[in-house]
Amino acid sequence: MELAEYGVTMTCLSPGNTDTNFFSSAGIGNETEGFFSKSGRMKADDVARTGIDALYHKKMSVIAGGLKDKLLILSTRFGSRKFVAKTSIKFTDKP
User: Fold this and answer.
1) Within 10 A of 75 (CB to CB), how many other CB atoms are there?
2) Strands (E), the chain
3) Per-residue pLDDT averaged across 9-21, rounded?
4) Burial classification of residue 89, based on how many CB atoms lie within 10 Å of its CB (0-12 exposed, 13-18 middle, 19 or more buried)
5) pLDDT grade for 12, boundaries at 50, 70 and 90
6) How far apart are CA 17 and CA 23, in angstroms?
7) Which of 36, 50, 67, 71 makes the best surface tag, with the fewest CB within 10 Å?
8) pLDDT of 29
9) How far is it, in rounded angstroms, from Cα 62 to Cα 48?
């Protein structure tokens, strides 16, 4: 909002699980079940398309992904930062 008077538009893109090299680097690239499973990831170009579409529609923020991703991101608004940080560790544990 602070740059609106200069004609600058910005959109905050919050991607859900996206199929990138991050998962392999983190050692969780081949998960077949659970939160980080490969089947639950969006393609990077779909995430980018979601962000660009939101930018063109002048949305302040957009969450890319399915319902699970949207609920997870929105749930962080209801907990303290400490609780959210501790909970996020559970998502990184390998099964």
Assistant:
1) 11
2) 12-15, 18-19, 42-43, 61-64
3) 87
4) exposed
5) very high
6) 9
7) 67
8) 64
9) 11
